[in-house]
Specification:
The chain has 404 residues and is of the alpha+beta class. The chain has three domains: 103 residues, no CATH class; 148 residues, no CATH class; 123 residues, Flagellar hook protein FlgE (Tick-borne Encephalitis virus Glycoprotein, domain 1). The protein contains two helices and 30 strands. A hairpin with a 4-residue loop joins strand 23 and strand 24. Helix 1 runs antiparallel to helix 2. The longest helix has 35 residues. The chain is rod-shaped, with a radius of gyration of 35 Å. The protein starts with a helix and ends with a helix. It is found in: Bacterial flagellum basal body. It comes from Sinorhizobium saheli. A flexible structure which links the flagellar filament to the drive apparatus in the basal body. InterPro entries: Falgellar_hook_FlgE_sf (IPR037058), Flag_bb_rod_N (IPR001444), Flagellar_basal_body_rod_CS (IPR019776), Flagellar_FlgE/F/G (IPR020013), Flg_bb/hook_C_dom (IPR010930), FlgE/F/G-like (IPR037925), FlgE_D2 (IPR011491), LlgE_F_G-like_D1 (IPR053967).
């Protein structure tokens, strides 16, 4: 066996233990870092060919692995923008370079523009709601994603476009009897208009519905309501589109009333008193944004002072086949690796994706006791390898002195 080989083996062992100490140091330093995943050093032997008369010592090589798929403990906070994932998946965030990354670090706060950013400055990404419709996810890419922005818009108003009014019409009413109820709707500036629903019995099992704007006495639409012998509505379709342009704006405003589709499918004709169900309508009067709310499906709602919730964004999640093979980047984020598999995007609560917890954070998965144990082991092993190197050096010195 070569003495130089012995010394090289000792150096290899010391380098390996130094790498292990480096991961231990990194783990301990990040034991309180939100969403941090523990690094570990794995060892494998390096064997050199040997002859029958001598043995050539090889060495040891190391590979750093990250326990990315190992979920940390969940801790709860008082901030609604703190987010944790219970189950699989990663938040999609965007760096200052415009590149998307994956992370489990969900300590998000609003920046000066209202965007949600985490501690490392990465911006949370999601899909924007358009006209209240649930967004469609792009499963194999980041197209369509936008920054989740919670900037307050002050007072906002939304004009009505859809509503419903149900009622029980008394089957014993005489022809010509009129029953009336009303519904408040909103124009484009949030001004209220009162619509009267007038039901007139015209024949057995048949009523005429006329909807009138109370202020202008303008008729906005009529429908014939037919019922079967059981008092069930048979009119189809069971809705009526009101012509908003038929109503003049409130004096001094340029507000318009949208066309409004009224659903009356819950109307019945039974042997009891006239009973309107109260009706419902979308839109709202001017109301100030008072906050936001994030549910377990990742839907971000803007909350108004009147208690209404409006969906604005849906947080996107991403996952890969082998999370432990993702490439760690600075800022506690990950990028796709050659061996990690293809990135798949989706929404919380679907497929392999977990649910989103608002007011919670995922802690580091580092166990300090384990790290301190590993530190002691590495220290002892480093010392032993240094002794091998020292012994080889001393033997080499003996050989050199034999010449003297």
């Amino acid at each position: 066996m070569s003495l130089y080989g012995t010394m090289r083996t000792g150096v290899s062992g010391m380098n390996a233990q130094a790498n292990r100490l480096s991961t231990v140091a990194e783990n301990i330093a990040n034991s309180s870092t939100v969403g941090y995943k523990r690094a570990s050093t794995e060892f494998s032997s390096m064997i050199l060919p040997s002859s029958s008369g001598s043995y050539n010592s090889g060495g040891v090589q190391t590979q750093v692995r990250y326990s990315i798929s190992d979920q940390g403990a969940t801790t709860y906070t008082t901030s609604a923008s703190d987010l944790a994932i219970s189950g699989g998946g990663f938040f999609i965030v965007q760096g200052a370079d415009g590149q998307e990354y994956l992370t489990r670090a969900g300590a998000f706060v609003e920046d000066d523009q209202g965007n949600l950013v985490n501690t490392a400055g990465f911006t949370l990404m999601g899909y924007e709601y358009e006209a209240g419709a649930d967004p469609t996810v792009v499963v194999n890419g980041f197209d369509g994603l936008t920054e989740v922005n919670l900037a307050s818009e002050g007072l906002t108003a939304t004009g009505s476009t859809t509503g419903a009014m149900g009622a029980n019409l008394p089957s014993g009413a005489s022809n010509g009897d009129v029953k009336t109820t009303s519904l408040i709707v909103y124009d484009s500036q949030g001004n209220t208009r009162i619509l009267d629903f007038n039901y007139t019995k015209v024949a057995d099992n048949q009523w005429e519905l006329e909807i009138i704007d109370r202020t202008s006495s303008t008729s906005l639409g009529t429908a014939t309501l037919d019922f079967d012998e059981d008092g069930v509505l048979t009119t189809s379709p069971a809705n009526l589109t009101l012509d908003g342009t038929a109503i003049s704006p409130i004096a001094g405003t340029g507000a318009i009333l949208n066309d409004i589709v009224i659903d009356f499918s819950e109307t019945t004709q039974l042997g009891t008193a006239f009973t309107p169900d109260g009706g419902k309508i979308d839109g709202n009067a001017p109301s100030k944004v008072s906050g936001y709310q994030i549910d377990t499906d990742g839907i971000v709602y803007i909350k108004y002072a009147n208690g209404d919730l409006e969906p604005r964004y849906r947080i996107a999640l991403a996952d890969v086949q082998s999370p432990d093979k993702l490439i760690p980047e600075s800022g506690n984020v990950y990028s796709q690796g050659v061996d990690s598999g293809v990135i798949i995007t989706g929404f919380a609560g679907s497929g392999s994706f977990g649910t989103i917890l608002s007011g919670a954070l995922e802690s580091s998965n580092v166990d300090i006791a384990d790290e301190l144990t590993s530190m002691i082991e590495s220290q002892r092993n480093y010392t032993a390898n240094s002794k091998v190197f020292q012994t080889g050096s001393e033997l080499l010195e003996v050989l050199v002195n034999l010449k003297r």
